[in-house]
Amino acid sequence: MDRTPLESLLLDRQPETLLLIPPPGNHGDTLIHTGLRKRLDALGVPYTRFGRERGVDVVDVVGDVTLTGADYTNGRTLARLALAAPLWVRYKLRGDFDTIYIHGGGSFNDLWGGAVQAFRTATAMFDADVIVGPHSCLFEDTDPAALFRNVSNDVSLFCRERYSYDAMRDALADCPSVSVHLSPDTALYLDRSDLIAGEGTEDYTLLAFRSDQESVGSHATPDLDGVKTVEEDISDTRDSLAGFVEAVARASRVYTDRLHVATLAVILQKPVTFYGNAYHKNRGVYEYSLSEYDRIEFVDPSAGTPDP
Questions:
Q1: What are phi and psi of 230, to 5 degrees?
Q2: What ranges do the domains of the chain cover?
Q3: 23, 53, 152, 210: which sits with the fewest CB atoms below 10 Å from its CB?
Q4: Residue limits of the Polysaccharide pyruvyl transferase domain (predicted)?
Q5: What digits encode the pLDDT tens for the residues 32-62?
């Protein structure tokens, strides 16, 4: 991969003390974070991982590490905040971070919002440059300019597809402290050898579809009678990143509407049929990044049944 706009900015800025705000989310988010850390190491950019304490990722316990916008009536949320708040304060008291990096993904929007809350917390607590990693953005209830209007930090917002880039560039045109950029999802910094030894196996056909608010419902797939299949939303069900990777590595073919199941299949060089989701995210990332890879086809869910 040629140098991406995100890499170019990091090399231009040369941050000396970069704080990585990690992903709340599923194994796809972890794949994004893993790709980013690989590239930071290759570029020689030093960083501190929020919540990395004595070799253990505290955020695995904390979950949502943001302080603003939380549901303070929820007992589980309060338990997480009891762990997260001291971490935020600890990093604030260090006072030496020149750049805060908010994890890329699909949560800088009204659908999920985790990255939005992390952004609000970081800009309220730190007098530092802020980089929001490559995201897919969708704001229907929120004025995105309102998120940035009173922020004094120098903010670089990256989008991972053109639909989000065009929308955010227009929405933030009057926010002088924010620059909007287009750069690939950081999971694509990974190679097959980073994740598995060898080429994987062909034990089954994997059908990995989501059932949440991004789903468009059932998906038309070819007749798979007589074919061994595994139907599982592995982004949520597998207990580790290694288990997530293994599920795709063992597949002969993948059908999915999960962006990072499709991305992982591309990295592992598995044939994948990739379906659209409830907004422009899947189509946008396919058009901007994934379409250049072999062995992937994109299916508009309204277009009917793909070829086997």
A1: -120, 120
A2: 5-189, 192-303
A3: 152
A4: 26-277
A5: 999 999 999 999 999 999 877 655 555 544 4
